[in-house]
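Write out the 3D structure for:
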Amino acid sequence: MERLRCSVIQDIPRLRELWYLAFGDDGAYVDNFFDTYYKPERMLVLEEDGVVRAMTAWFDTAFVVPEEGSFRAAYLYAVATHPDCRGKGMAGRLLAWADDHFRALGIPAVTTVPAEPSLHNFFGSNGFRECFTHTEHRTQPGPGPEGEAPFALDKLTPFHYQGLRESILAGKPHIDLGEKAVAYQAGACALTPGGGLYAADTGAGVALLCAEGMEDGSLLAKEVLGEAEAVERLLAWLPRLLPAWSGIWRCPGDDLQFGMLKWLDPARAERWDWERRAYLGLAFD
């Protein structure tokens, strides 16, 4: 017998097992989710014969659309099915039930970032369409300029990073993740030495930086935000300020498809300009 429901505390060992089987993430990464963000209602599951077979977490965010408003949006994360149960449509049924669950909560939009390119087709078959993009730059970081950096890289709390982020992104369609999701991101950053949420007052304005560890121990500049000159100054000094930086950095732009959107109201979906692009940025990809 199949049952769709919110998780309960007793599900946690099974949820952790599914997470590892689907994504291979180590214990510390998964611990961060359950320590900083998990609540039973923030994870939805499909249970068969009393055993959880599929799951998804969700973050309560907002899709900010200038001149239209701010729309509550459920960001789906860690969508997973047990390997022995794949190909049976369980994830699709879970996503369909999740839509009804979100409608009951008054949430009009759902977003997600597929974990790999092939999953764009899966989510597309479940009503999602391309919407969120960014630009990724890859450079070979050198030693940086001579002398002492003219500004510092200041570590921020999730609250302060979130506030500055919203100020910079004002006027652009984007996802406002909210402080709780940014706190989860901060926990992921802290798993690697040097990782964190930073700001630099460059003399040409404030630039923001989210630095998260990669598999080789170097740091990905997962999000760099600010006016062009401020970002340019930050990047010039970043090899000195953050020696473990990999040379990879992401910023708002239209080069790479990244996240997908589904409006739960068919009328709004019909009115939405699907050529319009928005920024998600700090997805937990």
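The CA atoms of residues 63 and 175 lie 5 Å apart.
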